[in-house]
C-alpha cells in the first residue's frame, strides 16, 4: 500500500494542483489553444496554507527563490518567470520578501510557426521552492503538467479571464532610469515620479542581493518630480553599475526600474509610511483626467492647432444647415479625435513598457511620418483651393449627404494626429501621470485629451442654441475654403522644412518632389471630375509617394541639431551637472523642430534682447535639448520631470532643484528668474 501511494504521488497531474503539503501548486494555461508562431501566457498558481508563505525573486535576508525545470515538446519554448508585487515580513529582525496569499508567477509560452494546427502539446514542469512559517521552513517540490493544442497561425486565442487578475498583480515597468549614489555606507536612489502622483507606503525592493541592506529602515522623500529612497547600502553596492528593483506605490501596485550612477539630491519633503493618497486612486485619476480635458480644450487656441482650423470651419458651417446631420457629424468628429488619441496613447504605453524612452508626439520623430503629413496636408490644401472635390468635405452632392459622418470622423482623426505634437497648459502633468498610472486609467486620460480637443465642435453639434449663432451656409463658404487653403500650404511648407532638418536636404527635395507629383495627379483628377474612374490618374502619384517613403533617409545629417537661441550649449547630463557644481544658475529648455509652440516661444520670447541682457547680467548658463529626432537621454530626462513631450523649460537656481516654467513663456517669466 505504501508503494502504491508513493507511485501515485509521482504521477503527473493534468492542470491540477500538485499535492504539496503546505503550498498547493497548479499549472494554468492562458488559453486552450496556442496559435502557431504566437504566444500565450501560462501561470504557475501557488496557494499557501494559512500561516505559510513563499518567496519573491529576491527572498531578502532569508528564504530562497523558486526554481523551475520545464519538460517541453519540440517546437515549444517558455520565457522567464515574472513575479507579482511582493509583501514584507520581518521575523526576529530579519527582512523577508514573501507572498502570504494565493499568487501566480507568469511566463510566456511560444509555439513555433512550423507546428501543425491540432497538434497536442503535453507540458510538464517541476517546481522547487521553500515554504515557511515564522518558525520553520520546509523545502518542497511540485510536479505539474497540462495539455494544450496548437492552433492555426494568425487566429487569436481565447484568453482565460482569470489572467486579467494575474496581470493586474504584476508590477509595471517605469520606462525610465533612476539614479543612485553611494556615500558613507548609505545608498540614495532617485526615482522619477510626477509630483502629482501621490503614493502610499512606498518601499524599494532590490532585485539583486547585496545591493541594499534589506533589514535597514528606508526613508522616502520627495524633491519635486523625484522620489528619493535612502537606506543603508549593501555589501556590494559600491561596485554596482546598476541597482534594479521594484518600488511599491500602493497596496499591490509597483513599478519596475533600474537606477544608474548619477547625482541624487539630499532628502526632500518626507513621505509618511502610511500617509498619502493611494497611487492611482480616484483623486489622482480625476485630477489628471481634468487636466487632460482642459489641456485638450486649450489646444484649440494654440498655434500648433491652427493649421487644421480650416477643416473645422467648413464642418461647423455645414452643421448649421441640418440639425440631425450636425449631431451625427459632431459625434463622428469626436470619435475620430478620441480614437486617435487612444491609439497614440496605447502605442506610447506599449513602447515605454518595452523600455523605449519615448514621449508624446513620438510619431513626429520619424521622417516617414513627416512625409505622409506633408502629402496629406498638401492634398487638403489643394482641395480647399478648389483644384478638385473630395466628397467627404465638399458639399451639395448626394454622396456627401450619405458620407458626412464619415468625413467628419476622418477630419477629427487628422485633427488629433496633427494637433498633438506639443503639450499645452495643464497637459504636461496629466500626461506624465498617465505614464505611471494603471493602463485603464492612463488610457482614460488620453481619451480625456481627445475629448477636450473635440469639445467645442461637439457642443456646437449637440446644442441647437449654439449652432443658431453660426452664419448660414452660402457663397461665402467657397471663398472661406480658398482663403483657408493658405494656412494648409504654409503648414506643408513647414513640414518640408522639418523633413529637411530631420533627414537633410535630399529628404526635403524628395518630399517636395512627391508633393509636386501628388499635385499633378490631383489636378488631373479635378479635370476628370465626374467621369468614370476619375481617380485613376492619382495611382502613379500614390505609387511615387510610397516609393519616397521607402527611400527617404532616416539618419539625421551632421549639424542638424538645433542651436540654442540664447548664447549657450547643447544639453547633456554631464554638462548640466558641471554647471550646477560651479554654482551657476542654469536655464534649460527642450525643443523640437515640429513643435510649433516651441518655435513661437523661441522667436517671440527667447530671442528678445531684454531676456539676453538679463541672463548675461546674472551669469545664467543656457542649455538646449533638441528632441526633433528623438533622443533616449532627453526622453528619460523629460520623464524624470513628469513630462512626456516638449516644450519643457527649467530654471536651476544655485543649490536648488529645478523650477518648471510655463509652457507658453512671457518675457517677465524669464527676466524675473532668480529675483
TrEMBL record:
It is a multi-pass membrane protein. PROSITE patterns: THIOREDOXIN_2. It holds the Pfam family DsbD_N. GO terms for molecular function: protein-disulfide reductase activity. Keywords: Cell membrane, Cytochrome c-type biogenesis, Membrane, Transmembrane, Transmembrane helix. InterPro entries: Cyt_c_assmbl_TM_dom, DsbD_gamma, DsbDN, Thioredoxin-like_sf, Thioredoxin_domain. GO terms for cellular component: plasma membrane. One of its GO terms (biological process) is cell redox homeostasis. Its main location: membrane. SUPFAM superfamilies: Thioredoxin-like. The chain crosses the membrane at residues 284-309, 330-349, 369-388, 409-435, 441-463, 483-501, 507-527, 534-554. The keyword Nucleus does not apply. This is Thiol:disulfide interchange protein. The lineage of its organism: Bacteria, Pseudomonadati, Pseudomonadota, Alphaproteobacteria, Sphingomonadales.
Amino acid at each position: 500500500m505504501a508503494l502504491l501511494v508513493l507511485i501515485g504521488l509521482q504521477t503527473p497531474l493534468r492542470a491540477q494542483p500538485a499535492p504539496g503539503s503546505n503550498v498547493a501548486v497548479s499549472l494554468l494555461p492562458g488559453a486552450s489553444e496556442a496559435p502557431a508562431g504566437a504566444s500565450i501566457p501560462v501561470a504557475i498558481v501557488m496557494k499557501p496554507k494559512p500561516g505559510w508563505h513563499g518567496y519573491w525573486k529576491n527572498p531578502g535576508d532569508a528564504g530562497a527563490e523558486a526554481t523551475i525545470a520545464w519538460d517541453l515538446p519540440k517546437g515549444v519554448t517558455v520565457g522567464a518567470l515574472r513575479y507579482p508585487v511582493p509583501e514584507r515580513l520581518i521575523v526576529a529582525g530579519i527582512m523577508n520578501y514573501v507572498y502570504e496569499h494565493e499568487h501566480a508567477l507568469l511566463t510566456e509560452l511560444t509555439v513555433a510557426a512550423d507546428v501543425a494546427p491540432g497538434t497536442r502539446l503535453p507540458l510538464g514542469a517541476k517546481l522547487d521552492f521553500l515554504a515557511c512559517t515564522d518558525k520553520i521552513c520546509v523545502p518542497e517540490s511540485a510536479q505539474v503538467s497540462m495539455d494544450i493544442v496548437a492552433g492555426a497561425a494568425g487566429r487569436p486565442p481565447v484568453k482565460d479571464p482569470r489572467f486579467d487578475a494575474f496581470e493586474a498583480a504584476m508590477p509595471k515597468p517605469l520606462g525610465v532610469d533612476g539614479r543612485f549614489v553611494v556615500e558613507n555606507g548609505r545608498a540614495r536612489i532617485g526615482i522619477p515620479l510626477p509630483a502629482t502622483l501621490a503614493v502610499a507606503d512606498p518601499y524599494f525592493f532590490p532585485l539583486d542581493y547585496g545591493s541594499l541592506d534589506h533589514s535597514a529602515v528606508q526613508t522616502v522623500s520627495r524633491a519635486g518630480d523625484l522620489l528619493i529612497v535612502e537606506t543603508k547600502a549593501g555589501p556590494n553596492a559600491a561596485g554596482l553599475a546598476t541597482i534594479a528593483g521594484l518600488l511599491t506605490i500602493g497596496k499591490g501596485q509597483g513599478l519596475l526600474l533600474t537606477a544608474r550612477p548619477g547625482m541624487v539630491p539630499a532628502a526632500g519633503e518626507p513621505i509618511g509610511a502610511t500617509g498619502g493618497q493611494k497611487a492611482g486612486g480616484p483623486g489622482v485619476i480625476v485630477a489628471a483626467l481634468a487636466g487632460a480635458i482642459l489641456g485638450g480644450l486649450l489646444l484649440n487656441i494654440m498655434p500648433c492647432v491652427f493649421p487644421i482650423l480650416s477643416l473645422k470651419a467648413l464642418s461647423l458651417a455645414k452643421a448649421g444647415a441640418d440639425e440631425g446631420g450636425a449631431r451625427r457629424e459632431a459625434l463622428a468628429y469626436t470619435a475620430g479625435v478620441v480614437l486617435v488619441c487612444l491609439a497614440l496613447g496605447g502605442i506610447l504605453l506599449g513602447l515605454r513598457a518595452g523600455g523605449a524612452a519615448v514621449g508624446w508626439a513620438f510619431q513626429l520623430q520619424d521622417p516617414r511620418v513627416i512625409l505622409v503629413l506633408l502629402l496629406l496636408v498638401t492634398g487638403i490644401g489643394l482641395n480647399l483651393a478648389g483644384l478638385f472635390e473630395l466628397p467627404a468635405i465638399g458639399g451639395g452632392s448626394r454622396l456627401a449627404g450619405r458620407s458626412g459622418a464619415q468625413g467628419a470622423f476622418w477630419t477629427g482623426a487628422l485633427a488629433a494626429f496633427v494637433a498633438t505634437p506639443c503639450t499645452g497648459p495643464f497637459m504636461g502633468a496629466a500626461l506624465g501621470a498617465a505614464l505611471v498610472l494603471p493602463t485603464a486609467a492612463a488610457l482614460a486620460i488620453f481619451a480625456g485629451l481627445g475629448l477636450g480637443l473635440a469639445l467645442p465642435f461637439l457642443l456646437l453639434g449637440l446644442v441647437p442654441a449654439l449652432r443658431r449663432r453660426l452664419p448660414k451656409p452660402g457663397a461665402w463658404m467657397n471663398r472661406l475654403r480658398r482663403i483657408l487653403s493658405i494656412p494648409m500650404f504654409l503648414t506643408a511648407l513647414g513640414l518640408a522644412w522639418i523633413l529637411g532638418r530631420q533627414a537633410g536636404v535630399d529628404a526635403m527635395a524628395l518630399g517636395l518632389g512627391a508633393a509636386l507629383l501628388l499635385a499633378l495627379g490631383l489636378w488631373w483628377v479635378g479635370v476628370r471630375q465626374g467621369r468614370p474612374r476619375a481617380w485613376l490618374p492619382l495611382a502613379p502619384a500614390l505609387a511615387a509617394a510610397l516609393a519616397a517613403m521607402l527611400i527617404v533617409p532616416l539618419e539625421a545629417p551632421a549639424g542638424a541639431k538645433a542651436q540654442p537661441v540664447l548664447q549657450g550649449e547643447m544639453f547633456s547630463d554631464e554638462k548640466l551637472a558641471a554647471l550646477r557644481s560651479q554654482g551657476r544658475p542654469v536655464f534649460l529648455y527642450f525643443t523640437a523642430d515640429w513643435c510649433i509652440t516651441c518655435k513661437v516661444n523661441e522667436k517671440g520670447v527667447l530671442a528678445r534682447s531684454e531676456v539676453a541682457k538679463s541672463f548675461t547680467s546674472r551669469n545664467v548658463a543656457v542649455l538646449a535639448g533638441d528632441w526633433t529626432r528623438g533622443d533616449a537621454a532627453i526622453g528619460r530626462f523629460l520623464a524624470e520631470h513628469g513630462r512626456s513631450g516638449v516644450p519643457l523649460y527649467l530654471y536651476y537656481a544655485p543649490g536648488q532643484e529645478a523650477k518648471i516654467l510655463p509652457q507658453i513663456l512671457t518675457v517677465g517669466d524669464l527676466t524675473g528668474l532668480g529675483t
